[in-house]
Each structure stands twice: as structure tokens, then as C-alpha cells.
Amino acid sequence: MVLPSCSRTTRLLAAHGAEIGAPYYPVPDQETFDALDDKWRFAGVCADLGLPVPLTRRFETMADLRRDPDYAHLEFPLILKPAAMSGGYGVRRIDSADALPEHLSYTPIICQAYVPGEELSAFYLCEAGKIFASFSYRRTLTKLEEIRVPAIDAHASRLVAHFRYDGVIGFDVRRRPDGEIAFIECNPRFWYHMEVAMLAGLNFVTLGCRLREGESGPPDSDTLKIRSPRRLCGNLLTPWRLNRAERAYLRYIVRDPAISGWAAFQSAIGRYRLAGGQLL
Prior knowledge:
Blueprint: H1 7-16, H2 30-37, H3 39-49, E1 56-59, H4 62-67, E2 78-82, E3 92-94, E4 109-113, E5 118-127, E6 130-139, E7 143-146, H5 150-163, E8 167-175, E9 181-187, H6 194-199, H7 204-212, E10 225-227, H8 229-233, H9 244-254, H10 262-271
Antiparallel strand pairs: 1-4, 2-3, 2-4, 5-6, 5-8, 6-7, 7-10, 8-9
Helix pairs in contact: 1-2, 2-3
Keywords: ATP-binding, Nucleotide-binding
Pfam families: ATP-grasp_3
Protein name: ATP-grasp domain-containing protein
């Protein structure tokens, strides 16, 4: 089965999957993918469907932003980011007018109001506009834990049904201290931190393959809660205090061949970014 690994390969299968003569992982149609993968177009989709989204504007250059009639009334902080890049590339929080850069290395520029509060991530596997499996979590400085926010699921269900969506889709969401949420961007493809759901017992790759082959029934999974790597280090001598997900997470980290020996293990695990495997 052919698996897409990024935006380009997902779009390739969306456009030409039927021509390759081999089974492939479920993906949305090309028009849907293009509408959701672009941050500017996704903000428009949210507005059309009534999904909560921060005030979002689009500029070709920083000079265009400064020439905008509303420039003097910009509220800070705000977020600048590219329209169609992944992995957080180019995303910048700007706290004052003096901090606005003269130039950016990408175009167009998406300018979005900053939403205070916590960052949530929600992911779904869908078939013909229906959600088949889902996984949501939040990450803090001390832990990562699975959560369920009915409002996010309800809005996501409406979008998925509108597009009769097929395949995996993820949303970056901000939740204000008062509980109000805002959809920030969409990932209509495999996402960077898929291992988090896998550690919780939801392997989205396997589930999508089963969907394509006509099987059904996602596996049951325990609620995920993982403390930060530094906090886990403090319990290495008392492993009975670790839950199933934390033991799986430690096994996941130590499979890295670059980590060898106790000292290297302590150093590396302390610098691991929770839920990403990225070094701080």
C-alpha cells in the first residue's frame, strides 16, 4: 500500500492515486486538500462554516502590511507565518510594532491575531465524511495528556462532513482561559507527532490501511498521560510509578542509537522535547 509522507505526496495521491495501479492510503480529494492545507484558505473555510478562527489577514510582503490602512491599529501580540509550510517553519510571535521584521524569507505572509491560553492538538481518521477514530492532547511544561473537548470534536465533525473527507486530518487549536477555542490551522495529511497517538494505542497508519481494505473497528486505548522527560528521569529507579504510556515513551526514546550509556541517556532524555523527539 502506498503511504503519503508529507503535503506533496498527499496531494500527489489526491490527484493521481487512481492512476498508479496499486492500493494507497485514504486521502482527501485534491480540491479539498488545497483548501485546507493553505492557512489563508483554511481561515476562510472556518469563517464560511462557522468554526471559531482568529482574525486573519494575508499580505504579499511586509511592505504591503505596513501600507495597509489598518496598520496603525494592529493589536499585539500577533502571529506571522507562511501560508503553506509545515513543522512550524517561519512562525513568529510579534509582541510590538518595533519587533516587526523588515523582510521575511517567504511569501505570502499570513498575519493572525494571537490567542492567549493553551495549545491543543486534535487528530481524526475519516471515511466519506464520518470520523472513524480520533485523538486529542495538550502539552504543558511538565506533561502531555490526552483530552477530550466536545466543542472541538463538534466543529471538526461539521468540517469533515462538509467535505466528505477521507483520510487523516489534524487541527491546531488554542483555548483561552475562559474556555473559548479558536482553530489556528489544519493538517490534511500525516502530521509530525504521530508517535504520540501511537503510544496511546492508536496507530493511524494501521487504522487507515484497514479502512482502505474494508476492515473496521479501531482498537481500544487507555487514556494517555506522560510526564515530561526530566520528571520521568526522577522515577527511573521506581519504575512501578510509571504508567503504561510512560514506559512505552521511554522505550521509544532509548531506541535512538545515538543514546548509549547511562550518562548519555540522562543527558539526551533531559533535552528531549516531549511529544516530538526534537532536541531542545
